[in-house]
Amino acid sequence: MKFKFTLYLFYLILDSICTSASGNYVGIVGKSISIACNTNLWSENDISLILWYKGSKGVPIYSIDSRTTSLTNSRHMSSGPRYKLNVSILPPELIIDSLVEADEGEYRCRVDYKNERTQHYATFLEILGKLILISLLR
Fold it and tell me: Which residue from 36, 61, 114, 123 could staple onto 79, CB 3.0 to 4.6 Å apart?
């Protein structure tokens, strides 16, 4: 006798970020993720500007300008309400809330310093969370 058994498998992962050994990130649809800008110089008084880009777009999705003030008191500009930058930790982290599949892709961080050369960091965000349908026949 054949039984058709349909199993819906959802990814159940903690609300915290998930990184691979390569430094890339894995996020879950509907959850939040924090992406660190892993350049090697971090001092609040040395940073002038932080810019985050997605993909090859030339317009930042998030920027913070601290040329005339401290990083903590600087002006934040976001391309949408789901993006935030946590500057209370070093290095600061880009937070993306309520992940959707379209968030998958390359993210690039650019940091301009007051007395050092500009540094760039790139990482890839993979999004999981599509419903997987498994049919088992017996």
Answer: 61
Per the structure, the complete domain to which residue 116 belongs is given by: 4-133
Is residue 44 classed as helix, strand or coil in its secondary structure? helix
Structure pTM?
Answer: 0.76
Question: Residue 138 falls within a domain, yes or no?
Answer: no
In sequence order, the 6+-apart residues with CB closer than 8 A to the CB of 15 are: 31, 32
The CATH number given to whatever domain includes residue 94 is 2.60.40.10
Structure-model confidence comparison of residues 118 and 89, the more confident one: 118
Residue 113 falls within a domain, yes or no? yes
> Closest Cα to residue 99, out of 84, 82, 86?
82
8: which residues sit within 8 A by CB, 6+ positions away? 131, 132, 133
